[in-house]
Amino acid sequence: MDTTNLADLYSLPEMEWSAIRTRLDQNIDQAPGSGGLDRHTCWLTTINADGSPHPTAVGALWFDDAFWFVTGARSRKGRNLARDPRCTMSISTHEFDLVVAGEAVQITDSAIVADLAARWAASGWPARVDETGQAITAEYSAPSAGPPPWHTYRLTPRSAQAVSAVLPGGATRWRF
Questions:
Q1: Given this model, what pLDDT does residue 38 score?
Q2: What CATH number corresponds to the domain at position 45?
Q3: Residue 8 has pLDDT above 60, yes or no
């Protein structure tokens, strides 16, 4: 891992990826009332066909050193990812603001999809595996996800950048 202290100019300490990862591993709840300004929101940014960014809020999970999310094949983010898997995921926590960049890979392994459905269900979204075993369905989802079934994606960090939201402050970039 290559680490760059982006706040060296101000003599602020380098942030530790292990601390960021530990916080992410604590399951950052996205429900109302659970975080900064009433909640935490993950923002996925994909690349439109014209090269412009397309940011949208998603219900992402962090585990196994990656962000996981769902979307429908016909949604704009689904079409963008099919054409160009490069994307970013960002989130603000009480401790830091984070942007993770990488490539989203669609997951079709039925055991992994079932595990994710169970994780989302445990967090309050009534997700379940559809009849194919390779996608998620539920009574509802974010309107931006499009209609079910929703495909599952894994975004493994290629790089990440964080800005500390607590003293002593700091800003750091990691390349994995």
A1: 43
A2: 2.30.110.10
A3: yes
